Amino acid sequence: MTPRAAGGRADLVRALAAADPRLLDITAALLGYEPLVRPLTIQGDCVSPMTVAGGVPTAAPTPQPSTLLPALFWQATAYRPLADPTEPETPLPIAEVRWTGRPGEDPALRLLCPWRQLQPRLRARAAARVATRTPDVARIVALISRGRQLARVPYERRPRWGPRVQLIVDRSERLVPIWTDQDVVARRLASLLPVHALERGILWEDLDRPRLLGRDGRTLAYRMPPPGSLVLVLGDLGGAQRGDPAVSRHWLRLGAALRAAGCRAVALTPLPLSRHGPGLREVWELIAWERAGGEWSGGNGSGSGRGGTVRGAVRAADPTPRQQCARQPRRPRRTLAAPGLARRAH
To answer: What is the predicted pLDDT for the residue at 223?
Structure first.
């Protein structure tokens, strides 16, 4: 330390610095002292704290010559070819790769529910019954036979998909096992509807709303279909992700918006209907992907498959189908009844 003014409190500064080094600069500045830069010196290849004196660098000393140690280097003195350059190179033999032990039949695709069984249930629950131009003869005869006068001619009402069907496929990672089932249902619906009546949408992981698929392959922002349209979702509506209720809330808001727009919100879910909350069941028409009484469908949606099990046992004990099967070749029975009930039914 060098004083900027007359003062004799250097001992006090050193005493405070010994207690807390941080007080040294503060107290020295208050008493009129400023830090002194120590000169640095250069000795050979080492830099020690004595090189700069007063902030002016000094000339470095001239290095003394010394004897270098001998170094080893590799040098090629002879060459020998690995192969005779005059002989032509023999090409490696190319053998056909064959699959040994290949199974004779392709693996069977096991769907949640075959289309021939899924289509009637989907049409009965998702399609709306619309009046046609064909008179309802059975209803007309029933009214006339009761002596009632026909104010207007009743027409037959048949299920129709609606003016437009918006198909939304949930491609979340948790639904990877049913991606093939989704593709099968999407192809079947596309074969039943004209091109202008089907609008496709897709929902990827971590998206709040689905994206619509354009004709050129690009994805577009979601928009509501016209009133009276059918919106069919192939997914679980977040039921398989119980730890994150935000997913179900997104579907709940979308279902409420569709209902307010005059559309029919239907979901084909691979989970039991009991896995979905009451709020979703109010705004969405839920259809179990597997047939009633299956392992995942939970019977009639009550959460336990016992209802379907009991019905399967009753059908097995009914003598009427047994008499019909007696005239046909015997087939293996496929029932979900309990083993004890099935044995008693036989």
So the answer is: 92
